Amino acid sequence: MSGRKQFDVGAALDQAMRVFWQRGYAEASLDALGSATGLGRGSLYGTFGTKDALFRQCLDRYVSIYGAQYEQALTAHSGDPVRAVEAYFDLILSRIADPSVPVGCLIAQSAAQSPTLKEENSTQVRGLLDLQRQRVRAALADSSADARTLDELATFVVAVNQSLAVLSRAGASDAELRSVARLACTTVADTLARAAPEDVTQG
Protein backbone atom coordinates (compact mmCIF):
# COMPACT_ATOMS: atom_id res chain seq x y z
CA MET A 1 0.00 0.00 0.00
CA SER A 2 2.87 2.38 0.70
CA GLY A 3 3.74 4.51 -2.32
CA ARG A 4 0.24 4.34 -3.76
CA LYS A 5 -1.71 7.58 -4.01
CA GLN A 6 -4.55 7.48 -1.50
CA PHE A 7 -6.71 10.04 -3.30
CA ASP A 8 -8.65 10.50 -6.51
CA VAL A 9 -6.31 12.29 -8.91
CA GLY A 10 -9.16 13.29 -11.24
CA ALA A 11 -11.18 14.76 -8.38
CA ALA A 12 -8.14 16.70 -7.17
CA LEU A 13 -7.58 18.06 -10.67
CA ASP A 14 -11.21 19.15 -10.85
CA GLN A 15 -10.86 21.04 -7.57
CA ALA A 16 -7.65 22.69 -8.71
CA MET A 17 -9.35 23.68 -11.96
CA ARG A 18 -12.08 25.42 -9.99
CA VAL A 19 -9.49 27.42 -8.05
CA PHE A 20 -7.82 28.66 -11.25
CA TRP A 21 -11.27 29.29 -12.75
CA GLN A 22 -12.46 31.34 -9.81
CA ARG A 23 -9.26 33.16 -8.85
CA GLY A 24 -7.17 33.23 -11.98
CA TYR A 25 -3.60 31.96 -12.23
CA ALA A 26 -1.95 34.75 -10.24
CA GLU A 27 -4.25 34.48 -7.23
CA ALA A 28 -4.36 30.68 -7.21
CA SER A 29 -1.77 30.23 -4.48
CA LEU A 30 -0.33 26.87 -3.56
CA ASP A 31 -2.09 27.20 -0.21
CA ALA A 32 -5.45 27.72 -1.97
CA LEU A 33 -4.78 24.82 -4.34
CA GLY A 34 -3.76 22.60 -1.44
CA SER A 35 -6.82 23.54 0.58
CA ALA A 36 -9.15 22.82 -2.34
CA THR A 37 -7.58 19.49 -3.25
CA GLY A 38 -6.77 18.37 0.28
CA LEU A 39 -3.14 17.84 -0.75
CA GLY A 40 0.04 19.17 0.78
CA ARG A 41 2.66 20.85 -1.38
CA GLY A 42 4.68 17.68 -1.62
CA SER A 43 1.71 15.72 -2.92
CA LEU A 44 0.76 18.51 -5.32
CA TYR A 45 4.25 18.60 -6.80
CA GLY A 46 4.57 14.84 -6.79
CA THR A 47 1.29 14.34 -8.61
CA PHE A 48 1.02 17.31 -10.96
CA GLY A 49 4.46 18.87 -11.09
CA THR A 50 4.89 22.63 -10.80
CA LYS A 51 2.05 25.13 -10.47
CA ASP A 52 2.47 25.90 -14.19
CA ALA A 53 2.18 22.23 -15.10
CA LEU A 54 -0.93 21.91 -12.92
CA PHE A 55 -2.42 24.99 -14.57
CA ARG A 56 -1.93 23.52 -18.03
CA GLN A 57 -3.49 20.23 -16.92
CA CYS A 58 -6.47 22.17 -15.58
CA LEU A 59 -6.87 23.95 -18.91
CA ASP A 60 -6.86 20.56 -20.63
CA ARG A 61 -9.39 19.26 -18.13
CA TYR A 62 -11.66 22.24 -18.72
CA VAL A 63 -11.55 21.72 -22.47
CA SER A 64 -12.15 17.99 -22.17
CA ILE A 65 -15.34 18.71 -20.22
CA TYR A 66 -16.77 21.71 -22.04
CA GLY A 67 -15.08 21.48 -25.43
CA ALA A 68 -16.86 18.22 -26.21
CA GLN A 69 -20.20 19.81 -25.31
CA TYR A 70 -19.54 22.80 -27.53
CA GLU A 71 -18.48 20.52 -30.37
CA GLN A 72 -21.73 18.59 -30.06
CA ALA A 73 -23.82 21.77 -30.03
CA LEU A 74 -22.07 23.17 -33.10
CA THR A 75 -22.31 19.94 -35.11
CA ALA A 76 -25.89 19.02 -34.19
CA HIS A 77 -27.40 21.34 -36.81
CA SER A 78 -25.69 20.40 -40.04
CA GLY A 79 -26.66 22.75 -42.86
CA ASP A 80 -27.99 25.43 -40.49
CA PRO A 81 -25.05 27.53 -39.26
CA VAL A 82 -27.26 30.09 -37.53
CA ARG A 83 -29.01 27.42 -35.49
CA ALA A 84 -25.60 25.93 -34.65
CA VAL A 85 -24.41 29.27 -33.28
CA GLU A 86 -27.65 29.63 -31.32
CA ALA A 87 -27.12 26.20 -29.77
CA TYR A 88 -23.53 27.16 -28.95
CA PHE A 89 -24.62 30.28 -27.09
CA ASP A 90 -27.45 28.41 -25.35
CA LEU A 91 -24.90 25.99 -23.94
CA ILE A 92 -22.55 28.78 -22.87
CA LEU A 93 -25.36 30.60 -21.08
CA SER A 94 -26.43 27.40 -19.35
CA ARG A 95 -22.90 26.89 -18.05
CA ILE A 96 -22.71 30.50 -16.86
CA ALA A 97 -26.04 30.11 -15.04
CA ASP A 98 -25.00 26.83 -13.39
CA PRO A 99 -24.56 27.56 -9.66
CA SER A 100 -22.40 24.48 -9.19
CA VAL A 101 -19.44 25.96 -11.11
CA PRO A 102 -17.55 29.25 -10.80
CA VAL A 103 -18.87 32.25 -12.70
CA GLY A 104 -17.35 33.01 -16.08
CA CYS A 105 -14.94 30.88 -18.07
CA LEU A 106 -11.51 29.50 -17.22
CA ILE A 107 -10.19 30.32 -20.69
CA ALA A 108 -11.52 33.90 -20.57
CA GLN A 109 -10.09 34.30 -17.07
CA SER A 110 -6.72 33.01 -18.25
CA ALA A 111 -6.73 35.03 -21.48
CA ALA A 112 -7.19 38.23 -19.48
CA GLN A 113 -4.02 37.37 -17.57
CA SER A 114 -2.00 36.28 -20.63
CA PRO A 115 0.51 39.17 -20.38
CA THR A 116 1.53 37.94 -16.92
CA LEU A 117 1.60 34.20 -17.73
CA LYS A 118 4.70 32.29 -18.67
CA GLU A 119 5.10 31.87 -22.40
CA GLU A 120 4.13 28.19 -22.43
CA ASN A 121 0.94 28.89 -20.50
CA SER A 122 0.05 31.91 -22.61
CA THR A 123 0.62 29.89 -25.79
CA GLN A 124 -1.71 27.16 -24.55
CA VAL A 125 -4.44 29.69 -23.74
CA ARG A 126 -4.10 31.24 -27.19
CA GLY A 127 -4.27 27.78 -28.72
CA LEU A 128 -7.51 27.04 -26.90
CA LEU A 129 -9.02 30.29 -28.19
CA ASP A 130 -7.93 29.28 -31.68
CA LEU A 131 -9.57 25.88 -31.16
CA GLN A 132 -12.84 27.61 -30.26
CA ARG A 133 -12.60 29.68 -33.43
CA GLN A 134 -11.88 26.60 -35.55
CA ARG A 135 -14.95 24.82 -34.17
CA VAL A 136 -17.21 27.78 -34.86
CA ARG A 137 -15.65 28.27 -38.31
CA ALA A 138 -16.39 24.64 -39.17
CA ALA A 139 -20.03 25.10 -38.15
CA LEU A 140 -20.30 28.13 -40.42
CA ALA A 141 -18.81 26.30 -43.40
CA ASP A 142 -22.24 25.14 -44.62
CA SER A 143 -22.99 28.76 -45.51
CA SER A 144 -22.49 30.04 -49.05
CA ALA A 145 -20.68 33.12 -47.75
CA ASP A 146 -17.06 33.69 -48.78
CA ALA A 147 -14.18 32.41 -46.67
CA ARG A 148 -13.13 35.84 -45.41
CA THR A 149 -16.62 36.58 -44.10
CA LEU A 150 -16.78 33.21 -42.36
CA ASP A 151 -13.36 33.75 -40.78
CA GLU A 152 -14.46 37.14 -39.46
CA LEU A 153 -17.75 35.76 -38.14
CA ALA A 154 -15.99 32.91 -36.34
CA THR A 155 -13.71 35.40 -34.60
CA PHE A 156 -16.73 37.55 -33.74
CA VAL A 157 -18.62 34.62 -32.19
CA VAL A 158 -15.62 33.66 -30.04
CA ALA A 159 -15.22 37.31 -28.98
CA VAL A 160 -18.86 37.40 -27.87
CA ASN A 161 -18.39 34.15 -25.97
CA GLN A 162 -15.45 35.63 -24.07
CA SER A 163 -17.40 38.84 -23.46
CA LEU A 164 -20.29 36.89 -21.94
CA ALA A 165 -17.88 35.31 -19.48
CA VAL A 166 -16.43 38.69 -18.49
CA LEU A 167 -19.85 40.31 -18.16
CA SER A 168 -21.11 37.45 -16.01
CA ARG A 169 -18.18 37.89 -13.61
CA ALA A 170 -19.05 41.59 -13.42
CA GLY A 171 -22.58 40.71 -12.31
CA ALA A 172 -24.58 41.04 -15.53
CA SER A 173 -27.99 39.41 -15.28
CA ASP A 174 -29.08 36.37 -17.25
CA ALA A 175 -31.47 38.59 -19.22
CA GLU A 176 -28.64 40.94 -20.17
CA LEU A 177 -26.39 38.08 -21.24
CA ARG A 178 -29.16 36.51 -23.31
CA SER A 179 -29.78 39.84 -24.99
CA VAL A 180 -26.12 40.00 -26.02
CA ALA A 181 -26.24 36.44 -27.35
CA ARG A 182 -29.49 37.10 -29.22
CA LEU A 183 -28.04 40.17 -30.93
CA ALA A 184 -24.91 38.19 -31.81
CA CYS A 185 -27.02 35.47 -33.44
CA THR A 186 -28.94 38.14 -35.38
CA THR A 187 -25.64 39.61 -36.56
CA VAL A 188 -24.48 36.19 -37.74
CA ALA A 189 -27.75 35.56 -39.59
CA ASP A 190 -27.79 38.99 -41.24
CA THR A 191 -24.14 38.81 -42.24
CA LEU A 192 -24.54 35.37 -43.81
CA ALA A 193 -27.63 36.54 -45.69
CA ARG A 194 -25.86 39.61 -47.07
CA ALA A 195 -22.73 37.66 -47.94
CA ALA A 196 -24.45 35.08 -50.17
CA PRO A 197 -22.84 35.08 -53.64
CA GLU A 198 -24.61 37.46 -56.02
CA ASP A 199 -24.57 35.01 -58.92
CA VAL A 200 -27.03 32.75 -57.05
CA THR A 201 -29.87 34.99 -58.23
CA GLN A 202 -28.47 35.49 -61.73
CA GLY A 203 -29.06 33.29 -64.65
From TrEMBL:
Pfam families: TetR_N
InterPro entries to which the protein is assigned, alphabetical: Homeodomain-like_sf, HTH_TetR, Tet_transcr_reg_TetR-rel_C_sf
UniProt keywords, alphabetically: DNA-binding, Transcription, Transcription regulation
DNA-binding interval(s): 29-48
Annotated HTH tetR-type domain residues: 6-66
Protein name per Swiss-Prot or TrEMBL: TetR/AcrR family transcriptional regulator
Organism: Streptomyces viridiviolaceus
